Task: inverse folding
């Protein structure tokens, strides 16, 4: 399915300003319209960490030590199965894994800025772009999906130690979708209160966009950010969850070994209304052929409109009884509004990088 560049232009501003430097914006280029780089992490080189132990789910009293910079953060793995083989080492992408399963979710959760980015004026937009390799087992049927999302954290960092969903004893529960009986704060703190949206791109089925309300309940699935309405995914026990499926075509199954770029944008299209757009491209940029995509509009969301976005998640659901591995090579957040302090200093040097990395869409 092809996303019209005209429809994207209609919800974007005609110009942007970064750190006092004005940019001339070609009207036909959505990439340029979102050229203010908030966060750009090349995972193999930028010094990000994975599963920092200081914000443990079992002992959630310490703040997460990895304050996000313009190019790095801490990624916490949360999984309904044993994803302890997930890793991030210098010179390699972030390898997010799951063992063979008929129903399981693995994801990474992270803060991408210490200052939430609000969408205040009509036309304000934010976009998450994730480049990854389907190492094996991703998005291969109508129930398996590749998922990304943007959220407001409410000042709460993700928990670590949620990557092993095979534990059965209440004293060692360390994965989403396990009973949290006997553990402190089993359904509070971490990302339980994060508010936002996520997209699920399915194999041979239409992609979907979901709201992600605050969570509650009696198990660790309250700590899930992606893969709505599935085992190990978002349960929405503390709110009403909406699904948007206006996309008109099914996605193509992914091919193991190939590189893909998944984009998710949120635009304030009218007061209190967000337009949500997801596009999955073949290749390492948003210039390849579209594997799937679509647009959907939400209802009034006053809390998110005022609070802004500072958190993200990337993950996948496996449902075909094969092991899966998603190798995440780059995570980028861009906007067409001024980037708030304290991130602005680092952003100036990254703006050119963001423009060079992306070619113009037509």
Result:
């Amino acid at each position: 399915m092809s996303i019209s560049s005209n429809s994207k232009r209609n919800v974007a501003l005609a110009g942007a300003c970064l750190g006092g430097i004005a940019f001339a914006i070609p009207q036909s280029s959505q990439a340029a319209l979102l050229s203010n780089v908030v966060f750009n992490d090349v995972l193999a080189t930028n010094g990000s960490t994975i599963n920092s132990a200081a914000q443990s789910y079992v002992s959630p009293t310490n703040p997460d030590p990895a304050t996000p910079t313009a190019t790095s953060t801490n990624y916490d793995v949360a999984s309904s199965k044993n994803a302890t083989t997930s890793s991030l080492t210098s010179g390699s992408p972030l390898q997010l894994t799951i063992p063979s399963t008929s129903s399981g979710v693995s994801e990474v959760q992270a803060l991408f800025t210490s200052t939430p980015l609000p969408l205040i004026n009509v036309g304000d937009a934010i976009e998450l772009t994730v480049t990854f390799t389907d190492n094996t087992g991703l998005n291969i049927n109508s129930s398996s999906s590749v998922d990304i999302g943007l959220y407001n954290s409410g000042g709460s960092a993700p928990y670590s130690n949620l990557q092993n969903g095979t534990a059965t004893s209440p004293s060692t529960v360390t994965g989403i979708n396990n009973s949290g009986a006997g553990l402190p704060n089993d359904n509070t703190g971490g990302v339980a209160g994060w508010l936002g949206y996520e997209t699920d791109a399915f194999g041979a089925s239409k992609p979907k966009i979901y709201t992600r309300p605050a969570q509650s309940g009696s198990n660790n699935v309250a700590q899930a950010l992606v893969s709505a309405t599935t085992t190990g995914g978002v349960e929405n026990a503390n709110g009403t969850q909406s699904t948007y499926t206006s996309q008109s075509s099914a996605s193509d199954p992914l091919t193991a070994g190939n590189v893909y770029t998944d984009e998710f944008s949120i635009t304030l299209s009218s007061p209190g209304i967000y337009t949500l757009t997801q596009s999955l491209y073949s290749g390492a940029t948003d210039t390849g052929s579209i594997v799937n995509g679509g647009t959907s509009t939400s209802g009034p969301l006053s809390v998110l409109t005022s609070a802004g976005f500072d958190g993200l998640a990337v993950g996948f659901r496996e449902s075909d009884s094969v092991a899966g591995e998603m190798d995440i090579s780059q995570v980028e957040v861009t906007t067409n509004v001024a980037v708030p302090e304290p991130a602005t200093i680092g952003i100036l040097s990254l703006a050119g990088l963001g423009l060079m990395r992306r070619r113009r869409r037509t």
The longest helix spans residues 344-357.
